[in-house]
């Protein structure tokens, strides 16, 4: 069965964005991009909420073609253009680009069905609202949390809607020179 893997930056106090969606506090550098490439290498599907998808789709399809494109821009643009994209949205309408599907009903059943398909991991970058929905249905298998050394005090929480205890197993940690710590957790399943 395919895994749903979340890659998310968050503040030390558990927020993924400020109260107005601010993400100017997130620390990212080439070393972290290289480290994160293992996630994209193991994924052939990207899952987004509508807002994150629209933000990503406005930049990544042509990022490699820009004169100032970095190696990361080129690599991630190629990955973004090659993978299937799933968008969770109740409001997104109209034609969507190739390799993109929109799920607006029966999200849990649709995602469970997709997880049963043959393929690599399904990777979520950002998309806290989509994560909240998937967490409620116990569909996330791995969390790669990039904890930034900042306290926001307020904002959009990653785990704000958890209603049941969820047991996680720490798989690995990585401390970057920037002070960001990556914590990789797997969901513990009861058999």
What's the CATH first level?
Answer: Alpha Beta
- What's the end-to-end separation, in Å? 15 Å
Query: Overall mean pLDDT score?
Result: 92
Q: Which secondary-structure class do the elements indicate?
A: alpha/beta
CATH fold node name: Dihydrofolate Reductase, subunit A
Q: What is the tally of helical segments?
A: 5
Total count of strands: 10
Query: What is the H/E order?
Result: EEHEHHEEHEHEEEE
| Strands ordered across the widest β-sheet | 5-4-3-6-1-7-10-9
Counted up, domains total 1
Instruction: Using the 3D structure, state the CATH architecture.
Output: 3-Layer(aba) Sandwich
Strand content: 25-35%
Low-confidence stretches: none
Record the SSE blueprint.
Elements: E1 4-11, E2 15-17, H1 30-41, E3 43-49, H2 50-59, H3 71-82, E4 84-88, E5 100-103, H4 107-116, E6 121-125, H5 128-136, E7 142-148, E8 156-157, E9 168-175, E10 181-187
Parallel strand pairs: 1-6, 1-7, 3-4, 3-6, 4-5
Antiparallel strand pairs: 2-8, 7-10, 9-10
Question: What are the defining features of this structure?
Answer:
5 helices; 191 residues; 10 strands; Dihydrofolate Reductase, subunit A; two-stranded antiparallel sheet; alpha/beta
Question: How would you describe this structure to a colleague?
Answer:
By secondary structure, the protein is of the alpha/beta class. It has one domain (4-187): Dihydrofolate Reductase, subunit A (3-Layer(aba) Sandwich). Helices cover 28% and strands 29% of the residues. The chain has five helices and ten strands. The chain has helices spanning 30-41, 50-59, 71-82, 107-116, 128-136, and strands spanning 4-11, 15-17, 43-49, 84-88, 100-103, 121-125, 142-148, 156-157, 168-175, 181-187. An eight-stranded mixed β-sheet has the order 5-4-3-6-1-7-10-9, sandwiched between helices. Strands 2-8 form a two-stranded antiparallel sheet. Strand 9 and strand 10 form a beta hairpin. It is globular and about 40 Å long. The two termini are 15 Å apart. The relative contact order is 0.26. The model has no long low-confidence stretch (mean pLDDT 92).
């Amino acid at each position: 069965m395919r895994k749903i893997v979340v890659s998310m930056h968050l503040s030390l106090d558990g927020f993924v964005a400020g109260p107005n969606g601010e993400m100017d506090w997130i620390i990212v550098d080439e070393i972290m991009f290289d480290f994160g490439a293992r996630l994209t290498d193991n994924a052939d599907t990207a899952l987004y909420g509508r807002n994150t998808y629209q933000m990503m789709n406005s930049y990544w399809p042509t990022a490699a073609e820009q004169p100032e494109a970095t190696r990361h821009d080129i690599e991630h643009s190629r990955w973004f253009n090659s993978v299937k994209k799933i968008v969770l949205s109740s409001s997104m309408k109209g034609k969507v680009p190739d390799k993109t599907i929109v799920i607006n009903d029966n999200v849990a059943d649709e995602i469970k069905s997709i997880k049963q398909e043959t393929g690599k991991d399904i990777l979520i970058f950002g998309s806290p609202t989509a994560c909240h929905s998937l967490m409620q249905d116990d569909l996330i298998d791995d969390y790669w949390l990039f904890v930034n050394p900042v306290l926001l005090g307020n904002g959009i929480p990653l785990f704000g809607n958890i209603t049941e205890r969820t047991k996680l197993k720490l798989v690995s940690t990585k401390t970057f020179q920037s002070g960001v710590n990556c914590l990789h957790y797997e969901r513990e399943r009861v058999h």
